[in-house]
Amino acid sequence: MAQELHRIYCTLNNAEAMKRQFTTALILIAAFALTAVADAATLTLNTALLRVRENSPRLRQAQETLHAAEARTAGSRSGWYPHLSAVADYSYRDPISEFNGMKFMPANSYNARVGAEMTLLDFGRTAKGVAIARSGEKAAGLSLTLTERDLAYTAIQVFHTMLFLREAVLVQEKEIAALEKNLEYTRSRYREGVATRFDLLSTEVRLASAVTKKTNLESELQNQSIALGRLCDLPENEPIELEGAFRAVERGGQESSIVASALEKRLELKLAGEHERSATKRAELAERAGLPIITGNLSWGTSNGFLPDLEEMRPNTAAGVRMELPLFTGFKTRSEKREALAMQRAAGAEKLNTDQQVRQEVRQSLNSLKASSQNIATTTLQVEQAELAAEHARTRYRNGLATALDLLDTEASLAAAELSNLEARYAFVMNTYALKRAAGEPLEPIQQPDQQTP
After folding, report:
1. pLDDT tens-digit series, residues 110-124
2. Dist CA 228 CA 230 (whole Å)
3. How far apart are CA 173 and CA 234, in angstroms?
């Protein structure tokens, strides 16, 4: 009897210990889950855009290109300043000039001097070079702003694609829950002999198809999360939590006014115009290639070779003016003129093409925005109709007035309608941003009228 009581006591103690271990494990799992959630990077659209501007390597590349252009502009002004240099040299001559044993130059010559040389007249070559460098600097600045805009647009696309996929996964989960419920009901009817094996298999196939679609959506969501993490320079494998929703308002304005605004604000047009001005300056510089260059020089130093003592180092000063006129450069001047004129024509064609492209993008964005707005209204009605049809189908199926296929079709139609409405809202938001981009407006987060900051 005592042994039996001892065995029961040990069993109870073991059960209590297992209970405590199980409770501890649950607490650890919950703590780990909370830590994982806390470690996830929470991003709003504002913070995502800010991180892209601060951390993008592509943006840093454009910034360094601008710094290089600024340095090039500073270097192009060197022709307006004197060039100072220090020279020291030694030379040995044999034979040397002499008469009746009298030497007129030393065999060993030493020379050390400081000199300055400056362009006095180059017929505007330096000025044209500075103008070309300034144009390149402006183009680099425009390219930097253009890169920032393109990165912001890419981040906006990825951010809203993730929002869309997140909502799409929820729609699929809703469909899967409905199909699982239908499957359980169909199994009970199958066991009762009311439903057929075909009804059961059809429901299982629909459920498997919905699960596969959800898996594909989750995979694409993960891919977009990786892309957003790279844009925002987040650590690899760090989970991302988004805060936001589809927000857009109908944009007013006539097509002509939006096109006029785009032609005034689009960075691509400004960049093409800068390329055209730079090509014009290059053509003008090429026209001056055959003109003379007049330079002046002045130097002071010490050297030997002066009578009566050829070996004595004596200070001396030298000054002069030189004119250089190119007579034949191996057809280089003519080739430079042809190149400059061709670049000028190419820049004009680039500007015309950019103008046409801007007009096209504005018109296409307006048409797409109008279509997506109409699609939202249409798909909203489709969702209402599909919800009502699904509710009726469930009731009829429970009462034996509809087949399993009828019920599955209505559930699939409801999920398709909800996804279509989600796609329409996603397209409307992206078309709104596309129109802002086409019109040359800043790509800031779109706010609802009641959420705008005063």
Report:
1. 999 999 999 999 999
2. 5
3. 29
How large is the angle between the packed helices 332-398 and 267-287, nearest 10 degrees?
Answer: 170
Query: Cβ distance 261 to 316 under 8 Å?
Result: no
- Provide the residue ranges of all domains of the chain, joining segments of one domain with +: 135-290+332-454
Joined tokens for residue 380: 């909203």
Cβ–Cβ < 8 Å for 319, 142: no
Nearest by Cα to 411 from 218, 214, 207, 217 = 207
pLDDT digits (tens, 9 = 90+) for 75-108: 999 989 999 999 999 999 888 877 777 777 888 9
b/e per residue 134-173 (b: at least 16 CB within 10 A):
bbbbbbbbbbbebbbbebbbbbbbbbbbbbbbbbbbebbe
d(CA 121, CA 293): 6
According to CATH, the topology of domain 135-290+332-454 is Outer membrane efflux proteins (OEP) (1.20.1600)
Nearest to 240 by CA among 261, 257, 262, 223: 223
Query: What values do phi and psi take at 452, rounded to 5?
Result: -75, 140
Q: Is-above-0.90 flag for pTM?
A: no
How far out from the chain centre does Cα 445 lie?
Answer: 16
SS3 state at 388: helix
